[in-house]
Design a protein that fits this description.
Blueprint: H1 7-12, E1 16-23, H2 27-38, E2 43-46, H3 55-58, H4 79-84, H5 94-107, E3 114-115, E4 120-126, E5 131-136, E6 141-149, E7 171-174, E8 189-193, H6 197-209, E9 212-217, E10 223-225, H7 233-240, H8 243-252, H9 272-285, H10 301-318, H11 322-328, E11 341-343, H12 346-349, E12 355-359, E13 365-368, E14 372-375, E15 378-381, E16 384-387, H13 396-399, E17 402-404, H14 411-414, E18 433-435, H15 448-469, E19 473-476, H16 478-492, H17 523-535, E20 541-544, H18 550-554
Parallel strand pairs: 1-2, 1-6, 2-3, 4-17, 6-18, 7-16, 8-9, 8-16, 9-12, 10-11
Antiparallel strand pairs: 4-5, 5-6, 13-14, 14-15, 19-20
Helix pairs in contact: 2-15, 10-11, 15-17
């Protein structure tokens, strides 16, 4: 790649023009490019990383792996791809998922239309032309009929603004932006701040290397053992021989795009001994399917309490020190209302002599010092600090781009009190700007690749419809958006989810509005809603005819 030109030079350069500009080259951006090419449209993908993969390009922390079983966490659009790729483990590790993404990019020759190491700075809608002007980080500009934000829900790593952070003499890392060459913690005193999913996966691995590991916990999380294992050829073939039907079921019959047991009763419908047996079976199987033990765990407090109590008892049985076990047992949120974690020996790690749990719930971190950090008036000396502090989820990637729609309205300004979309795919006032798995869609409550394929298919079908009917654009109406936002909230508040201070609610980011962002009504229901909207001539959207030629307009 040639050296970037100066802003002054690029501002004078001719504007490149495409039918569609796609922001991001993760699983959403790659599939979007593939579909657009099939339609004969010109498209350009801009990716700030140096390769494809999105989340799986950046998140390379120790122990990183998917919490959806690998035979289901993959594309379904190509039967040849499904048959040729060989997953090796029940839950694929990050390096294998990244290799899969790279394989897809190469197999479908996507790279020529992806510009890597490129940041999108702004996107501005021109009401006179009905086109978008996209400005890149180096100042160059591109004209596009449509812009697709495929930036991912968990792509904006967040590091708290700790006092004295820049003074620390050791190394600092963030799990969401890990060095590609890896990190060796051998012989070091390491502090991990946070006990969310990335911490729960990385802490057991870091503990095996580090001389001393200190885990600074504000809020304990529920975690279920993964019981990961290599996949047998027979198991792989059992899926591959029936992929068409299995994929259909995932799309049309499941709430989360994951095939598994569909419970037919609530937790209190079973006698206590039967309920205990069921939970034990789910614990032994491992994975997030634990929440599918019964059909009312997300809705009913008494039912949820039985599952929460079961896991708390498991923690107490694993962790030898009663005081530490108590600290690791979540008590401030129902199980499942924060994204449930999947681990390998997480709780057992706190039995190691080189691991210390530091409770910072009532004594927050005061400051980072040159030697370590201070909490509760005590300084802990460290050689390295790992920030497992999560992401500005769902909206953070949009906030980094200056997006301006009709009348100069900014997306950041419009979403200042919480994101507002129609179906999670468009926001009123921003014509021809599509969002893949955005707020107001199932997204993070689902198998992301299933949701990605649904969104990309819907968006590209929409663009094809516009071309067929001679329309230049599409825009969500304000009324449809208002109705959808109200529906998303209504459905959410019928569940226990909003009771947790989760990243679903934006609670991990100071000052971020507390709004439940994903759609919890079920992926299968959501798909039907989207299909019905399209079948009804894109009900809730306003279609815009092409601009009249100037000579015609003057007549």
């Amino acid at each position: 790649m040639s050296a970037p030109q100066s802003n002054a030079a690029t501002s004078r350069a001719p504007i490149a023009s495409y039918d569609v500009v796609v922001v991001g080259a993760g699983f959403a951006g790659m599939y979007m490019l593939h579909r657009l090419r099939k339609m004969g449209l010109s498209a350009r993908v801009y990716e700030q990383g140096s390769d494809v993969g999105g989340t799986w390009y950046w998140n390379r922390y120790p122990g990183a792996r998917c919490d959806i079983e690998s035979m289901q966490y993959s594309y379904s659009f190509s039967e040849e791809l499904q048959q040729e790729w060989q997953w090796t483990e029940r839950y694929a590790p990050q390096p294998e998922i990244l290799k899969y993404a790279q394989h897809v990019a190469d197999r479908f020759n996507l790279r020529p239309d992806i510009q890597f190491n490129t940041r999108v700075a702004s996107a501005v809608f021109n009401e006179d032309t009905g086109r978008w002007t996209v400005t890149l980080g180096d100042g160059s500009r591109i004209s596009a009929g449509f812009v697709v934000m495929a930036t991912g829900s968990l792509s904006n790593a967040r590091t708290p603004d700790f006092k004295g952070l820049s003074s620390f003499k050791g190394e600092t890392y963030h799990t969401g932006h890990w060095p590609h060459e890896g990190v060796d913690f051998s012989g070091l005193r390491v502090g991990v701040i946070g006990t969310g999913s990335s911490a729960i996966q990385s802490i057991p691995v870091i503990a095996e290397q580090a001389k001393q590991l200190l885990v600074f916990q504000r809020t304990p999380n529920f975690s279920i053992p993964a019981h990961n294992h290599p996949l047998s050829e027979d198991y792989r073939q059992s899926w591959k021989s029936n992929y068409a039907e299995l994929r259909r079921r995932a799309r049309e019959e499941t709430r989360n795009g994951v095939i598994g047991d569909i419970p037919d009763k609530g937790a209190l419908d079973d006698a206590p001994e039967d309920r205990q047996r069921r939970y034990e079976e789910k614990w032994a199987r491992g994975g997030t399917s634990f929440m599918a033990s019964y059909n009312n765990l997300a809705m009913d407090k008494a039912a949820n309490d039985t599952a929460s109590d079961f896991v708390r008892a498991k923690i107490a049985s694993i962790v030898k020190a009663p005081a530490i076990a108590k600290l690791l047992q979540p008590t401030n949120h129902p199980i499942g209302t924060k994204r449930i974690c999947v681990d390998t020996d997480y709780y057992a790690t706190f039995n190691r002599p080189n691991v210390t749990l530091v409770d910072i719930r009532n004594a927050p971190i005061d400051e980072i010092t040159p030697k370590g950090l201070v909490t509760g008036g005590k300084e802990y000396e460290l050689d390295a600090i790992v920030f497992a502090t999560g992401f500005d989820a769902m909206t953070g990637s949009f906030a980094k781009v200056d997006i301006r729609g009709r009348n100069g309205i900014t997306l950041n300004g419009k979403w200042a009190e919480g994101p507002k979309t129609y179906l999670g795919v468009m926001s009123a006032g921003f014509p021809n700007l599509f969002i893949v798995t955005g707020p107001g869609s199932p997204s993070v409550l689902s198998n992301m690749i299933v949701s990605i394929e649904q969104h990309v298919d819907w968006i590209t079908d929409c663009i094809a419809y516009l071309r067929k009917t001679g329309n230049a654009g599409i825009e969500a109406t304000q009324q449809a958006e208002d109705n959808w936002v109200a529906h998303v909230n209504e459905v959410a508040f019928k569940t226990r989810y909003p009771q947790a201070n989760s990243w679903y609610m934006g609670a991990n980011v100071p000052g971020k509005p507390r709004v439940f962002m994903p759609y919890i009504g079920g992926g299968h229901n959501y798909r039907k809603i989207c299909n019905d909207v399209a079948a009804n001539g894109y009900d809730g959207f306003e279609l815009t005819p092409p601009p009249r030629p100037a000579s015609t307009a003057a007549e």
